[in-house]
Amino acid sequence: MPPTNRDLTDPSWWRTAVVYQVYPRSFADGNGDGIGDLAGLIDRVPYLARLGIDAVWLSPFYPSALADGGYDVDDYCDVDPRIGTLAQFDELVAALHDQGIRVVVDIVPNHSGSGHRWFQAALAAGPGSSERGRYIFRDGLGTSGELPPSDWVSHFGGSAWTRVPDGQWYLHLFAPEQPDFDWSNPEVREEFHRILRFWADRGVDGFRVDVAHALAKDLTEPFASYPRIHRDVLKDDGTDVLFDRDEVHDIFRGWRSVMDEYDPPRSAVAEAWAAPARLPLYARPDELGQTFEFDLVVEPWDAARFRDSIRNALERARAAGASSTWVLSNHDLVRHASRFGLPAGTDLASWLMTHGTDPVEDREAGLARARAGSLLLLALPGSAYLYQGEELGLPEVADLSFDALEDPIWDRHGHTEKGRDGTRVPLPWTPDGPSFGFGSGGSHLPQPAWFADFAVSVEDADPGSTLNLYRRAIAMRTALLAGDGVRFADDREGVIEVLRDGAWRSITTFGVSAELPDGELLLSSAPIGADRVLPPDATAWIRDAG
Ligand code: NOJ
Ligand code: CA
Hints:
Blueprint lengths: L17 E5 L15 H6 L1 H7 L3 E4 L27 H13 L3 E6 L9 H9 L11 E2 L22 E3 L5 E3 L14 H16 L4 E4 L38 H12 L7 E4 L8 H5 L5 E3 L3 H4 L4 H18 L4 E3 L8 H4 L8 H6 L9 H16 L4 E5 L20 H5 L43 H5 L5 H15 L6 E2 L6 E6 L3 E6 L4 E2 L5 E4 L8 E2 L4 E5 L3
Parallel strand pairs: 1-2, 1-11, 2-3, 3-7, 7-8, 8-9, 10-11
Antiparallel strand pairs: 4-6, 5-6, 12-13, 13-14, 14-18, 15-17, 16-18
Helix pairs in contact: 5-6, 12-15
The chain binds 1-deoxynojirimycin and calcium ion.
The site of 1-deoxynojirimycin has 10 residues, from loops.
């Protein structure tokens, strides 16, 4: 099938792109040290091309102490030597561009790693220095400053303040190894413009912006109380103390002007866990252009809930003049093949703590729904963000032993939450070999024996595999997508029917079966017999008759 969307000069490519997220340390290991790297990734470019994706989004590959899987960046303009070199990065970009695949890199602007030269200089320079002014250092409370400056908590548990030997405290909304920048400091703004240009000059096509809604904070003292971080307590009028403040948009307007220095302009997508009504602000054309829609990652497998989420997301994208983004999995979430195999309302963190034994995951139902859900989202206008391994229908590795865990959540939550390692286990490429073909050595997180069933080579050879379903769906979507036109057929209980441009439709069943309308059956996530009945938890794409 001839790929469209592959013209590297097209400025609107991101509007309908299928973007594949690579978590570099767990994708492919070129030198057998158990850590995924750029050499491994370069080797697998043919795999990515065959999958038919439009872009690769690389999670951080920068030098890092790995206190948070690389989201603690020590140098924004280099490659972690364990992952490769800048020369290999250039080689990767060239190899992907040769295949018409664009490259998106992760920018982590809320905080650096504590090994960053600026943070080290801030520690050395002492209170009141301009070096400290790039971060958020304050004196403590209490008679001798022994108490943190406020009750703010870290996302990963515990206080958001850590004390340094001279007695001051610095703010970190994440791990202590992730000190927050002070974005009211023009030096910080300039530095990130430089970083954007550094990667854009190297041919990077777009940016994924980490915790985009956190950069502006109300630092008026005494600090307002904010003892709990949760979407429920977040104010939705631009005046929240820590998140989604109006001033953040000024920062992104600055980024847009940098991204527009390039031809084609560089794209961006915000990771902003803001109130839904505020998401379009980040996606405005003079800002980032797109923002992740995360509704579906918390919704149960339910037609009415899915339909509402999809309609709302489409409406928000329209309001922003953007295109919507569809996400079911990423490196922070329990894989959707497992999520959909658990009873609605399961507390996923508790489920992980039981090593995935309570409740018991229904693997078959989970996989059927994951395939159906992915096909539904690939039928919608907008862009789809896929996470490595979901094209294999890979479940979460819920049974990781406690001593294998790498995620800071485990320690910071006093060993009551396992965190996100179960979705970051290195991919299986072959059914055997030392790390299922991930590399010639081991794997930094242990892979379970059942990974063999999901290996790329196994699925490649099976026409009914999830891998081959994704390949067909992506190729067909690329060929079928005509415009933004989308309509929902009348609500039928348990069914979502999406009509595309009067040319084709996608029908998804949630726990019920449905007779398919006339028209050529293009693709389905489950086998369909001569009676043309779509079984429960399945999606079919049909070309409209006549
Ligand atoms: C969001 C990233 O996706 C996550 O992995 C990371 O821990 C936090 N931001 C902090 O950078
Ligand atoms: Ca390696």
